[in-house]
Structure prediction request, 411 residues.
Amino acid sequence: MEVHIFVGRQPILDSEGRIYGYELLYRNSERNSFPNIDPEQATIQLLVNTFLSIGVDQISGNSKSFINFSGDLLIKDIFSSLKPEYVVIEILEDVEITPTLISRIKEIKQDGFQLALDDFILQDQYALHNELFDLIDYVKVDFLNVDEEGRKTIERFIKKYPHIKMLAEKIETEEQFQQAKISGYDLFQGYFFAKPDIIKGVEIPANLNLHMQIINRLNDNAPNIDEIATLILHDISLTYKLLRFINTLNFSIPKSVGSVKQAIVLIGLRELRRWMRILMLQDISDHSSSGRIKALVSYSMSRAKMCELVAVRMGYPNGDEHFFVGLFSLLDAIMKRSWNDILPMFPFSEKVAETLLGKKTSMTTYLELAIATERFDLEKIEKISKQLGISKEEIALFSNKANQWAQMIER
Prediction:
């Protein structure tokens, strides 16, 4: 019986807010429905199908990928196809530390992999095996489930091993982020970056005004290609990115494109509209040093493609509006502004605007599914799967494709 696989990634940031890596999140989504499936075998199948077939580099690029491993999986010989420069092995908190396991960890370490202890709390077994900490590169501390006193005890213990980076996970607020930095943590993970707050707004790059002019021209009933090409040529960066975009997505075009007008004709106005909207988000990301914003833009790209793929599957000819709903679904968090402030700035259709405002529309379900796969909300995935009449195998495939596409665009 087939195991359903849902792949997601959660950014891990450094103290400057830059993306350090991603935790790749995976589950056996049918563990309760198919009790005869061994969880270890399900995880191995996931590793093969997702990380070896697709490739970790397709999901995380050149960033480090943190992947959970149980004790049984650590013993098995499944590391030969993984790239040690990209992969950090996370040892789950319930793994029993034994001399045999430590010997195995030494072998994994010698192969070039870095290691992390997940959901770390001080246990008696660690006192019996102090040598473990000479092999560990990261310790992850859960800010949601470990109180301040417990964290202080852990922090004092880890300071004995200065080579170990402390990673604060499940950071939910800006206050927790600041507290973790003060306490000496090196890396940070959690949903805090995805929550809009009422600090100062993010400055919109000046050339975004030019992009808005181009989009408005593209929305004309009879777009003037010469006029649009002239506007694009006003921004050398925009011109460069247009040509790079053509090469990146492997359009069936001649090797030599002689002009911006020729490029527009070759890819078509519909594709140009889509690309300009993507570029609007990327410009905000490019002009920001914040890993929080870059992470949100990354999520937006994956959501956009997921919404489009499912919409096309459901019979919408091109899924354009669904794509835009996913693409701009985090714009309020990115810009730190309310939707009431944002909507007048962008030429959204009424249906897209209502969906982004949280009103129930025909596109709401598609966005909810994209968010559910991103967060592994398996109950929600199950519900929407039945509602749309799409199998979970297809949803898993769409999720993988969306992550691949987003990673390709980000490069």
Observations:
- Confidence is low (pLDDT under 50) at residues 1-5, 27-37, 195-204.
